[in-house]
Amino acid sequence: MRRLEIPFLETDDVQEMDKLNQLMVGLKAIAIDCNPWPAYQADAKANFLMAHNGDAILLKYIVAERYIAANEVTNGNIHNDSCVELFIAFDNDGYYNLEFNCLGFTKIGYGYDRSDRKLLPVDVIKQLSFSSKINANSVINSNGGFDWEIMLVIPRAIFIEHEITSFNNLKAKGNFYKCGDGLPQPHFLTWNMIEAEQPDFHRKDFFGELTFA
């Protein structure tokens, strides 16, 4: 099981995305480099940087892939697009799935397994803020394609099934994903390895440990 320590970043100015991106530069990039289902191969690479300021999770994904798509809207089938995801559990009960496409459209659900999901209201999801950038002619992926990144500010109020007063010293479990089910090269990359016959991100039993500073 992988373990991740999430550093505290002292900033109240989380709506100034340019400044926030600069603050994130010094953080360690963590690879989403497991491919539990090698039958699916793609020219896709993904990393993330993560911190918190007590009141919000600060999460940046950096992606390179051959193909790109963004057809879905809020609470749609975001996993079919060029998609990055965070699944996170704050206790031994349910967990949240947060899914983002390359334009920032978002799907967030909560429940206990794949078949038991409740989508969060759109007005709750709108409390999340982001900036995204897409570059053609990838300089990261030697096979060409696109580079894109998304910077996310996820306030504690998003997690409506829990009364989180602060992320300080919080312990959680989770996994980070890169996928694109509807792309010409479907792929299902994970941070922590999953053991399952078919692609399935809803495997809480394979979440890694997350420790907030």
UniProtKB/TrEMBL annotation:
Protein name, please?
Answer: Carbohydrate-binding family 9
Q: Name one GO molecular function term.
A: carbohydrate binding
Source taxonomy? Bacteria, Pseudomonadati, Bacteroidota, Sphingobacteriia, Sphingobacteriales
Q: What Pfam families does its record include?
A: CBM9_2 (PF16011)
In its UniProt entry, the species of origin is given as Pedobacter xixiisoli
Which GO biological process categories is it annotated with?
Answer: carbohydrate catabolic process
Give every Carbohydrate-binding domain span.
28-212
The UniProt entry, under InterPro entries, shows: Carb-bd_dom_fam9
